[in-house]
User: Fold this.
Amino acid sequence: MASRLFAFAASLALLSLLIPSAYGKPASFTVMKGSNNIFFSVDIKYDGEITAVSLMQTDSPFASGHGWQPLTHNFGTVWNYDPKEPTLPPFSIQITDKQGSKLVAKDVIPPNWKIDAVYHGNLA
Assistant:
């Protein structure tokens, strides 16, 4: 019985290594000083090279029909969003990696976000 349990656990461990995208890739998002409802700056930590970042507002009446909005690369791992209208979180963040894959952390920035707060999500 113990050997079957061990074999099952080993199989699950191997499967999780072979299919990492089942749970997404971990990332952290730090809201930078200066962010407010008309300017948003985020420091993204992700184990990979990011070539583009976009943001989608989930609940904003201004966001209808806008879909993913591009952020501009500021410096290092910091990206800025400077929209023409006020924003209304939660925000989903989409990154494009070096291979061109688009990965999304859905609603990773909550409605009550705070400056310097770090939010964790999985990019899938």
User: Anything to note?
Assistant: The two ends are 36 Å apart (CA to CA). The first strand starts at residue 25 and ends at 31. Helices lie at 2-18.
